Automatic annotation (TrEMBL):
<keyword id="KW-0560">Oxidoreductase</keyword>
<dbReference type="GO" id="GO:0005506">
    <property type="term" value="F:iron ion binding"/>
</dbReference>
<protein>
    <submittedName>
        <fullName>Cytochrome</fullName>
    </submittedName>
</protein>
<keyword id="KW-0479">Metal-binding</keyword>
<dbReference type="GO" id="GO:0016705">
    <property type="term" value="F:oxidoreductase activity, acting on paired donors, with incorporation or reduction of molecular oxygen"/>
</dbReference>
<feature type="region of interest" description="Disordered">
    <location>
        <begin position="56"/>
        <end position="87"/>
    </location>
</feature>
<comment type="similarity">
    <text>Belongs to the cytochrome P450 family.</text>
</comment>
<dbReference type="Pfam" id="PF00067">
    <property type="entry name" value="p450"/>
</dbReference>
<keyword id="KW-0349">Heme</keyword>
<dbReference type="InterPro" id="IPR002397">
    <property type="entry name" value="Cyt_P450_B"/>
</dbReference>
<dbReference type="GO" id="GO:0004497">
    <property type="term" value="F:monooxygenase activity"/>
</dbReference>
<dbReference type="InterPro" id="IPR036396">
    <property type="entry name" value="Cyt_P450_sf"/>
</dbReference>
<dbReference type="InterPro" id="IPR001128">
    <property type="entry name" value="Cyt_P450"/>
</dbReference>
<dbReference type="GO" id="GO:0020037">
    <property type="term" value="F:heme binding"/>
</dbReference>
<keyword id="KW-0503">Monooxygenase</keyword>
<keyword id="KW-0408">Iron</keyword>
Length: 411
């Protein structure tokens, strides 16, 4: 008996190449089996639902849909109030507005752009530290430490504390990527301890920044007194945890999937090496072709919603398969071809609607710097295994290791 598309998506055996499953899934744009979730896989329908106020992201609503295998509340938020990612308006809007004031336009238009020099220095230092060019792991030596360091600098974590921050981030990230060979109780305790230590550390740092604010985002959040009032300490902790986990996990996958795709498409890699300006369209096409978040499982309908002639009843769990929508031939020509020259590229790789990726400007810039410098400095890079071993997580899909060899590393 052929497994259902739902089980095939979750089956680790399909992690290296889920796209044939998505192609089959698109034949039934709204797929539903038994008492499981409704799975939507076509571009226009996903886009409509991402903008539909009848679809809830509130974690307290999602937790009441027991038949969704991916609907458990986020572990990293279990001791904290929900972040704005897991709230509906008006609570969502208030917290997102408050977080955006020190992060982006119109109030802080230079926050991300002003990090260009720092991003360049971090990337340079990590590439310099690769060591033996005959065999190295891009994930462990570059993609994993890069975004954590960036978030530390963004929040204003003291340099001497960055190593502790990395350790906590690693433990929390491991809890998002289940390992069948590991003791789940031990892993759960490690992640819980890391969250508690991180929370206590950040709580102390927030109080210190309220007394002595600096020019960092945590200081701005801790001292803000705008039209929406100020964040409580618990709201601040929840927001900082969101920036750490969401910002870290997606960027790891974007950079790693990006380098894997470029190594499989050497013509594009050569073009990027010759012209770093191509990093912008390359990253946009990567967000379509190999998005770091494959699907959004935590949505619930607040009313009956009709999609392509199918009525999804009120209270139903929804999966929106972004990676499938990004390869919908009704929306993109030759969708299975990686094409950095693609003109029409309104992808779903960073979501859409009120929950579109908050850190998108920073994630784009990180990936552009990372991939352009890797292309420039690695001489004749090549994969040592293809496909590489993947993380087990079906939502945050990316290689767990990407082992590469090259002839040398340019200065």
């Amino acid at each position: 008996m052929t497994p259902s598309p739902l089980h095939q998506i979750l089956d680790y055996a399909n992690r290296a190449d889920p796209y044939p499953i998505y192609e089959e899934l698109r034949r039934t744009p709204v797929h539903h089996e038994g008492d499981g979730p409704y799975v939507v896989s076509t571009y226009h329908e996903i886009l409509g639902l991402l903008h539909d106020p009848r679809v809830s992201s509130d974690s307290r609503t999602v937790a009441r849909t027991p038949h969704d295998p991916l609907a458990e509340p986020d572990q990293q938020e279990s001791a904290l109030p929900p972040s704005f990612l897991r709230l509906d308006p008006p609570e969502h809007d208030r917290l997102r507005r408050m977080t955006n004031r020190p992060f982006g336009p119109p109030h802080s238009p230079h926050r991300v752009d002003g990090m260009r020099g720092e991003l360049r220095d971090i990337v340079t230092g990590l590439i310099d530290g690769i060591g033996d060019p005959d065999r190295f792991d891009l994930v462990d030596q570059f993609s994993y430490p890069f975004p954590v360091t960036v978030i530390c600098r963004l929040l204003g974590i003291p340099r001497e504390d960055e190593a502790r921050f990395h350790t906590w981030a690693d433990a929390i990230a491991a809890s998002l990527d289940p390992d069948p060979d590991a003791d789940p109780a031990e892993r759960g305790k490690g992640a819980h301890d890391a969250r508690m230590q991180l929370g206590m550390y950040l709580a102390g740092l927030i109080e210190e920044r309220r007394r002595n604010p600096g020019d960092d985002m945590l200081s701005a959040l801790a001292t803000a007194q705008g039209e929406d009032g100020s964040m409580t300490t618990m709201e601040l902790l929840s927001t900082a945890a969101l920036l750490l986990i969401a910002g870290h996990e997606t960027t790891v996958n974007l950079v790693t999937n990006g380098m894997l795709t470029l190594l499989r498409n050497p013509g594009s890699l050569q073009r990027l090496r010759a012209d770093h300006r191509l990093a912008v369209p390359i990253v946009e096409e990567l967000l379509r072709f190999e998005p770091p978040v494959q699907l959004v499982p935590q949505r619930v309908t607040l009313a009956d919603v009709e999609v392509r002639g199918v009525t999804i009843p009120k209270g139903s769990s929804l999966w929106l398969v972004l990676a499938s929508g990004n390869r919908d031939p009704r929306r993109f020509e030759n969708p299975d071809r990686f094409d950095p020259d693609r003109r029409d590229i309104q992808h779903l790789g960073l979501g859409s609607g009120i929950h579109s990726c908050f850190g998108a400007p920073l994630a784009r810039l990180e990936a552009q710097f990372a991939l352009s410098e890797l292309a420039r400095r690695l001489e004749n890079p090549r994969l040592l295994e293809d496909p590489p071993p993947y993380r087990r997580n079906a939502v945050l899909r990316g290689p767990r290791h990407l082992r590469i060899a090259c002839d040398g590393i340019r200065a």
